[in-house]
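look at this stuff:

>
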Amino acid sequence: MDSGTEDLAYDVFSRQCPSRGTLEHVTGRWGALTLAALHDSSFRFNELRRRVDGVSEKMLSQTLHALERDGLVHREAQPTNPPRVDYRLTPLGREIADRLMNLIHFVEGRMDGVLEARERYDSLATGGR
């Protein structure tokens, strides 16, 4: 094992490590987009669903449950009629979302190069590969 990793209590590369599940929740498409959407504001469920364009109600519900279980999202139900439920990041969720936003901004800033690479790849793939 590399000397930089032997002191870690968790090892995401081990199939039994619980950190692997959390990493999947954070880096999966809907988890990442949900955390990023909650980065700047709390949202009600339907507001969040509109913000995360393309997510189904079922998938958003499953994603929020997983992120809440991991301690990244806080669900607050208010006893109003009709009931109001707000979702916001926990302090740990905010730390993760901050890092995620850095990655999102980095990727968005490099998309011209990505799109050029895709175009080159696709032209080679259709040109006789």
